[in-house]
């Protein structure tokens, strides 16, 4: 039977990456998606922007919205300090099955908790079910029409504190116009645009970093 793209990405990791070496997992996925078949990972170019924001924030708690195959999950977790935790939300069970294996290959199971379900349902349960107070960093890379409602929901649920950083992928392509308008015009956020390109292409895209001012 025909394999799926996430299955082929996992195959590339198992074939080309070293177990327990997160950066080799990241490299293997980038090489596969650049040379064999495109996939919606944040990728190597925007990945460097992600790396610099993660390193600057040095977060103890991270929320990722949209795991997909676990590329950015592994990329972020590989930079976290020893006791830091990353919670990643994935809606599609088939993607979750692949992501868990990619995360395991990288040897990052202890830093990462992958939770299956819809962000709108899971965000209100973060405190009670996952023992989270607030998130130091949130990486938004799920359905683009969910960026704004989920940001408002995180505020309402008290999951953001003064200084929490939101980093959003794809604010140009595919685009998140309502989210961008909100964070750029709201007095409660200090926003900054990082111009880049859509993963593995020359198409313009960018990431928006927004600091919650409390
Ligand atoms: O559409 C894009 N991303 C949507 C991602 C969605 C992911 O988030 C999960 N989710 C998790 C929790 C939820 O509540 C909902 C979905 C979905 O199950 C999927 O794994 C996209 C598209 C392009 N593109 O060039 O077309 C480029 C990109 O970088 C992109 O990120
Ligand atoms: Mg994306």
Describe, in plain words, how this protein is organized in 3D:
The N and C termini lie far apart (52 Å). By secondary structure, this protein is of the alpha/beta class. Strand 1, helix 4 and strand 2 form a beta-alpha-beta unit. Helix content is 44%, strand content 23%. It has a seven-stranded mixed beta sheet, with helices on both faces. Helix 1 packs across helix 2 (22-35), helix 1 (5-16) packs parallel to helix 5 and helix 2 (22-35) packs across helix 5 (93-106). Magnesium ion binds at residues 40, 42, 141, 169-170.
Q: Distance N terminus to C terminus?
A: 52 Å
Beta fraction: 15-25%
Whole-number radius of gyration? Answer: 16 Å
> Per the principal axes of the C-alpha atoms, what is the gross shape?
globular
Tell me the layout of helices and strands.
Blueprint: H1 5-16, H2 22-35, H3 43-57, E1 61-65, H4 71-77, E2 85-90, H5 93-106, E3 112-116, H6 119-122, H7 126-130, E4 135-140, H8 147-156, E5 160-168, H9 171-175, H10 177-185, E6 189-197, E7 204-212
Helix pairs in contact: 1-2, 1-5, 2-4, 2-5, 3-4
This protein binds the ligand O=C(NC/C=C/[C@H]1O[C@@H](n2ccc(=O)cc2)[C@H](O)[C@@H]1O)c1cc([N+](=O)[O-])cc(O)c1O and magnesium ion (MG).
Give a quick summary of the entry:
44% of the residues lie in helices and 23% in strands. The chain has helices at 5-16, 22-35, 43-57, 71-77, 93-106, 119-122, 126-130, 147-156, 171-175, 177-185, and strands spanning 61-65, 85-90, 112-116, 135-140, 160-168, 189-197, 204-212. The site of magnesium ion has 5 residues, from loops.
